[in-house]
From TrEMBL:
Residues 17-508 form the Major facilitator superfamily (MFS) profile domain. The keyword Signal does not apply. It comes from Streptomyces vulcanius. The keyword Membrane applies. The chain crosses the membrane at residues 18-42, 54-74, 86-108, 145-165, 171-193, 205-223, 235-252, 273-296, 308-329, 336-357, 369-392, 481-504. This is MFS transporter. It is a multi-pass membrane protein. The lineage of its organism: Bacteria, Bacillati, Actinomycetota, Actinomycetes, Kitasatosporales. Its main location: membrane. CDD domains: MFS_MMR_MDR_like. It is found in: Cell membrane. It comes from the Bacteria. InterPro entries: MFS (IPR011701), MFS_dom (IPR020846), MFS_trans_sf (IPR036259). Keywords: Antibiotic resistance, Membrane, Transmembrane, Transmembrane helix, Transport.
């Protein structure tokens, strides 16, 4: 087998690697906003509770968070092209399963398979770029393009889903994911070169099992605790299991000869900062997106397309600014860009606490665009800093770890903020119903329905002459919960900004430099054989 180094690799090989990496992250994130804006339609069609609905997104995010690190190791050991192609295949199969779903449980299964595909794609695409562009100063530009592809998928996902739901059933929102993933898979067989990490790595099954158990138990406990009670036996068992598994994971990784996550990475203050920022900020942001999609459906009574057009304001700004921000990193330090972007994000979230049932398109859009600006200033520098803050041979592991912690935050977001929103809204509903003129008996009956079956069940009740007053009270109750979620999300962004302000000022490397041998790259074979 012929071997070349990146320095002597033809330019077209680097170009094809970067293009396929951008296509891969596009496929990974395409279902995120497509499903988010479709949640009200899914809830109506399948008659689900708010807790069941939150699992639609978490079924996607959980395997992504739990398996990203393992996927990164698979790529380092067995070749990133194989893992990349497996990710595309799982994404296509998962979308196909959800497309054929007739129950919420089958939707969960399809989402989980698609999440497994995303877990394979995210670390692999960043590791491919790191391998193709070894100069960290030049790499920032290409990570900016990668982030632009990510934001493009978020923008197009919501618009495609909105357009589809104008004419077809909700399940057809998954068709674009099937088509794009299969097309990318066919192209990658022809054009994508392979690469591996230098040295000898092997799979860390102990770390994988303990990490997966910790993440799954934690998110399950949070969701079920919000839906029932945190004193429920199964919730307490789940949270205890999560804590024990997290401790076991640390112990396993400290003693493993080939750890899935080398804990010495955290000796780098910059890596620690970006990891914590990714988890904290995405907990607030993804939780906010979940609440916002319900706001569009339950409060403003918008169609999916109308909601999608509003969400484009969030993803559209980072889409335009992704590459320029990558260039800006050459002039402005990430220690300024990242906390600054998080402050903008927090301000945007706080500005949204004034929205109501009759908030106009323009009044909402400028606030969402401001939120998009904050995200644009964070995502690219955060990712580039995480990869560049560790020795080169650990760049793939660093990328996988940053994505893993980001997805843990993303998985907890709908669970935590969804539980807070539901609890606050249900508790506020009786008072708003009484203020609207309903009798105490009627108010108690409606509040009981909301407590048992979710807020969406109230909107579906046939209440005759009281229908308008009940829906108005429901909107006010939901807004109470939404405003609380916005304050919490803004506080989380401020916390992440404080982490960045403190840790990003520290020296970049606490660990001694590591000598790295030249990186072998596997030549592509004809027809992908």
């Amino acid at each position: 087998m012929n071997v070349t180094t990146t320095a002597t690799a033809p330019p077209e090989r680097r170009a094809s690697t970067i293009v396929m990496a951008c296509v891969g992250v596009f496929v990974a994130y395409l279902p995120v906003t497509a499903v988010a804006v479709s949640l009200p339609a899914i809830q109506r069609a399948l008659d689900t509770s708010t807790s069941q609905l939150s699992w639609v997104q978490d079924a996607f995010v959980l395997p992504m968070a739990a398996l990203i690190l393992t996927a990164g190791v698979f790529g380092d050991v067995h070749g990133r092209r194989k893992v990349f192609q497996a990710g595309l295949a799982f994404s296509a199969v998962g979308a196909l399963v959800a497309l054929c779903a007739q129950s919420i449980q089958v939707v969960w299964a399809g989402q989980a398979l698609a999440g497994l595909g995303a877990a394979a794609l995210l670390p692999t695409t960043l590791a491919m770029i790191s391998h193709a562009v070894p100069d960290h100063r030049e790499r920032g530009k290409f990570i900016g393009i990668w982030a632009t592809a990510l934001m493009a998928s978020l923008a197009l996902g919501s618009l495609l889903a909105g357009s589809i739901l104008e004419h077809f059933a909700w399940r057809w929102i998954y068709l674009p994911s099937v088509a794009v993933a299969l097309t990318a898979l066919a192209v990658s067989v022809r054009v994508l070169p392979d690469s591996r990490a230098p040295g000898t790595r092997r799979l860390d099954w102990g770390g994988q099992l303990t990490a997966m158990l910790a993440i799954t138990a934690l998110v399950y406990g949070i969701i079920e605790g919000g839906a029932t009670s945190f004193t429920d036996v199964k919730v307490m068992v789940a949270l205890s299991t999560a804590a024990v598994s997290a401790v076991a994971f640390v112990m396993v990784e400290r003693t493993s000869s080939s750890p899935m996550l080398d804990l010495t990475l955290f000796r780098s203050p910059a890596f620690t900062a970006t990891t914590l920022i990714a988890m904290i900020s995405f907990l607030g942001l993804i939780g906010f997106f979940f609440a916002l999609s319900l706001y569009f459906g339950l409060v403003q009574n918008l169609t999916t397309l109308q909601g999608a057009l509003r969400l484009v304001a969030i993803s559209g700004v980072p889409l335009v600014l992704g590459a320029p921000v990558g260039q800006l990193m050459h002039r402005v330090s990430p220690r300024l860009l990242i906390p600054g972007g998080l402050l903008v994000t927090s301000g945007a979230l706080l500005s949204l606490t004034s929205i109501g049932a009759d908030t106009s398109y323009l009044s909402l859009t400028w606030r969402l665009a401001l939120l998009g600006l904050g995200m644009a200033l964070v995502v690219t520098p955060m990712t580039a800093t995480a990869v560049s803050s560790v020795p080169f041979h650990q760049a793939g592991m660093a990328a996988a770890a940053n994505n893993a912690f980001r997805q843990v935050g993303g998985a907890l977001g709908p669970a935590v903020l969804g539980a807070i929103l539901t609890t606050k809204a249900v508790n506020a509903l009786p008072g708003h119903l009484t203020d609207a003129g309903l009798t105490p008996a009627a108010a108690d009956r409606i509040a009981s329905t909301a407590d048992t079956d979710g807020l969406g069940a109230v909107a579906g009740l046939n209440l005759g002459a009281d229908q308008g007053r009940v829906l108005g009270a429901l909107s006010e109750s939901f807004l109470d919960g939404l405003h609380l979620c916005l304050v919490i999300a803004a506080a989380l962004s401020l916390l992440a900004a404080a982490v960045g302000a403190v840790l990003l000022r520290a020296p970049r490397h606490a660990a001694p430099p590591v000598a790295v041998a030249p990186r072998p790259e596997v030549q592509p074979q004809p027809h992908g054989v």
